[in-house]
Amino acid sequence: MGALFLALGCAHFQGAFAAELSPSISQGVDTNFKPEDHSSFENLKSPTHWSLSMEVIALKRSNNSVNQPLVSTLPGTSKFGQTANMSATEAFNSNQFEQGSAAGPKLTLNYLGDSGYGLELSYFNVNNLNSSNTIGPSNPGNWYIMKAPGFWQTQDFAYQGMTWGSTTSLYSAEANAKFKAPNKFNFLAGFRWFQLKDSLTGSVTPADQNDPVWKVGGCAPSPSQISQTVYDTTLSQTTQACALGASIGGYPPFWSTNTKNNLLGLQLGAQGTIVELGRLSLGGSLKAGVFNNQATQSNAVSITKIMYLTSASTNQVAYSGEGVLQLKYSITDDLSIKMGYQLLWLDRVALAPGQIPYVYSGSSPTSVTARGVNAGSSILFQGGTFGLEYLF
Hints:
By secondary structure, the protein is mainly beta. It has a domain at 50-66 and 104-134 and 164-218 and 248-391: Lipocalin (Beta Barrel). Helix content is 8%, strand content 56%. The protein has helices spanning 2-21, 23-26, 38-44; strands at 50-61, 69-75, 89-93, 102-112, 117-135, 142-148, 151-154, 161-181, 185-205, 255-277, 280-303, 306-330, 335-349, 359-363, 366-370, 377-391. The strands form 3 sheets. It has a 10-stranded antiparallel beta barrel. It has a 4-stranded antiparallel β-sheet with strand order 3-2-6-7, with no helix packed on it. Strand 11 and strand 12 (306-330) form a beta hairpin. The longest helix is centred in the N-terminal third of the chain and has 20 residues, at 2-21. It is elongated. The two termini are 66 Å apart. 29% of the residues are buried.
């Protein structure tokens, strides 16, 4: 009898053990699953969490908010000494610069977890948005004049015009936390850094072919003319160089200003998909930020061909706003091609033309002093992006 109970107990134990080892059998699941069964395998894959975008960004500076006269004109028959105080006709203003586009890299790394929280890291830069403009020469010759507090500059000879050049560069890096919202949108909050550089250079072109013994006209004076009072001279009416051979060179630009803005602060925003049609989708983002702007200006000013240097710095609040629209087409489940439009606005920044009224030149003794930094300007960039996005 005891042997019978022992046999029944062993049989029950074996059945339970087999059920534990083969739950799929007990639950009626197909046991003929094979690794090459692709549809079943896909259902077991974990969702994608990471994406890397590699793009080219091309931006154009679209807003020159500083209204600073750079070149004015007076008749060449006016005496040189009068050009400092006579009412002149404006010929070129800093808001007339038309800077072309420049391109650079844009990299974005995204992570979004199953919980709805994620991270975004992004960087781009665009260097050397350039513009240049030359006024003159004319025939009969005009005086071309640039004025600043305590300072004025004309060309040396009648065959010369006045040239101004502008260069802008922009860098951006950001790190944002992402919070998943309904309808395929995410909210963003994070840190951002901008560096904005702007420069302005004024020179007379072409270069001097004779020593300008001083403002006497199209030709260097004879020894008997050197004693002539400089301020009573007028501009020669010839636009031709009066000596052959290479220019004497060595003279620097008469004015050079460089500004640098380092903006570091916080931003908020939202991003997501607006429309989705199969493999094609349209998305976008909006961001706004508040920053501390550490702004500096440095200047090199030439007075009678001698350079004088000065600089200044300040800290103040600055703001940014950014909007992006992006069209994306999924080539495969993991690879997409992207193209978009980007608009970026920075407010309360230092631009080079805005520093001219803040630089004072004194003649007794000769000196140049930067009286602070004008960081009250705004600038607008807009352009396009193009690249690839990879999911992994």
